[in-house]
Amino acid sequence: MNKTRLVVAFFQSSLSKTSKCAERVLSERGISAAVVNFDEPAKLSSLIAELPSMQSPPAALLFALPPHNSWTGFLSRLDDGWSTMVNAICSKSPEMKAILVGLDFDAEAKYPRSSFEVFDGGQSVRCVRAWREDNGWHFIIRGEPLPFELTSYYERRKISDRLNSKIIHQLLLKLGINIDSLFNEFMAKAKLIKT
Questions:
Q1: DSSP states of the chain as a string?
Q2: Is the separation of the CB atoms in 158 and 19 below 8 Å?
């Protein structure tokens, strides 16, 4: 599985609680799902390989971040539309906070994109996006700035310098999430939810 086209999110919740909420969301929508538990430590890069191919039904990988962290990671393919699952989980459990990030792992992407959206109290409270299309660069901001943001970057002349993968990495580090090393770390536990 190529990691360049993944949806990446982090829930400030346990793996068990996040998984149960995701399963409940699917069940309430009449979608049957199977859960595969990975109880042996494995590198996240090898767990990503367990995500089905593009021709398969949607699936998501939930994983417990290393013990020093209070976050549960969420990965799915960008093309399967499961980025909406993050919003659905947060709506179902308003006490659960989450950050959904969009970033390009491919530095040579023709249409680069970078974004983050924060969910709190069951709704989206902050969204910042920068992306390029055929007609040029676009930039949007919604909601009040959060303490971990680097808002001075948003005033830069070049849109591609306002929010990019490097800045997203810095924001996540402020939350205790090192996405640079994440793909090479061993995850103690993970769950694959397949529809």
A1: --GGGEEEEEESS-HHHHHHHHHHHHHHTT---EEEEE-S-EEHHHHHTTS--TTSPPEEEEEEPPTT---EEEEEEGGGTTHHHHHHHHHH-TT--EEEEE--S-TT-SS-EEEEEEEETTEEEEEEEEEEETTEEEEEEEE---TT--GGGGG-SSGGGTS-HHHHHHHHHHTT--HHHHTTSEES-EEEEE-
A2: no
Show me where the domains of the chain are located: 3-194
Residues 6+ apart with CB under 8 A from 121: 94
Residue 108's CB: how many other CB atoms inside 10 A?
7
CA 187 to chain centre: 16
Is the four-CA dihedral 105, 185, 1, 37 of positive or negative sign? negative
Buried b (16+ CB within 10 A) or exposed e, 13-32: bebeebbbbbbebbeeeeee
Close Cβ partners of 29 (under 8 Å, ≥ 6 residues apart) = none
Dist. CA 181–CA 195, nearest whole Å: 29
How does pLDDT run across 56-109, given as a tens digit for each residue?
788 888 988 776 568 899 988 776 677 789 999 999 999 999 999 987 766 677
